[in-house]
Amino acid sequence: MFVVTKRFGRNETRVGDFRVEQDAINAIIEKLKEDRHFKLMATYCLYEGADLLKEYTQQDIPASVEDHSGADAAGSQKGSGKTFAPTPFNTTPRIGPQSWIKDDDTNEDKEK
Predict the structure, then answer these.
(1) Nearest to residue 46, comparing CAs of 66, 67, 28, 71?
(2) What is the pLDDT of residues 34-47, one digit of tens each?
(3) Contact at 8 Å (CB) between 19 and 30?
(4) How many Å from the N-terminal Cα to the C-terminal Cα in the chain?
């Protein structure tokens, strides 16, 4: 029985249980490709029972297995030159002064 865990920071969570070692390694490689897409740096550990067999990182992805379609999509985004940078301030143009405090005296004057 092979167990795959993911170590991210100090936390280690169980990813899955496998009967065949090659199935576990294939699952680790798929997870590493997902992590590369989301730019996460996690370490995957392969255990046989309670014994650690090997740790896998981004450098362990073979060059022949890498997903090149994600690299092409990322390259096309770099060429656009546009970036999204939200601001916490309201940038809508306003005409005239804004009064955020509602005066009760001015309402009474208008009614008279």
Answers:
(1) 28
(2) 999 998 899 999 99
(3) no
(4) 87
